[in-house]
Amino acid sequence: MRRSTWPGGFSPGVPVQPVFIRYKNELDTITWSWEGPGALKQLWLTLTQFCINCELEENPRIFADNVQKFVSSWTNTPISDFSLEDARFLKVAKQRHLPPTVALVKLMKLRKAIGRQHIDLSEELDQLQERRNSFTQMQGDVEHLALYLGLERCPEALKDFFRVLSQHKRNSLDVRVYDAGLYLLRTDLKVKEKLKEAFKVFNSDNPTEHLETILYYWKGIQYSKLAYKSDTEELSSN
Question: Which PANTHER family does the record cross-reference, listed alphabetically (predicted)?
């Protein structure tokens, strides 16, 4: 199940009525059919339905997420971190022979959102290396990551990237995670070279956590499911 529904309805704040059908339906499906009750009872049943619009008006994306979480729990169906608009980035990943993981897709989506999709990766990495040298605090919240990237605000794509990559749920992320992902996007390097350069970005600080980050980028393995016996050779095998 995808994490977001059709964005055209939720994003601009247009009222949307979610409809969900799953067979075999054990509910009373005849109530709303031609054999059901009369118009007065239909009206009464409609007016007594609990309805609140505050959440939808305040943040339609949260409303869409909550709808999907409810449907997921009700049907015991897992939720994917991919959204509908991620499909085109999955296609790009396939064309570049990159693993179709959520983390890499969110990174590509972020670069497009902040207007960096046409900047050469090696050039951007050189710029970020200079910025890292003047950055004393590597760990921080999403606003700290925006500052590191030179952004005046936090676009939705950045928040989405931060949410996916901060798997430890500490509301904190190492800004170098972005840089490491750029190395993995490069198509001019072999897999082992990509992984080696990505690890170098972190300067051996907290190697276990950064191994988790690389595994999540390249293999889509979440931190809670990580087997620490994995090594670079296993990462490079596709």
Answer: LYSOPHOSPHATIDYLCHOLINE ACYLTRANSFERASE, PHOSPHOLIPID ACYLTRANSFERASE
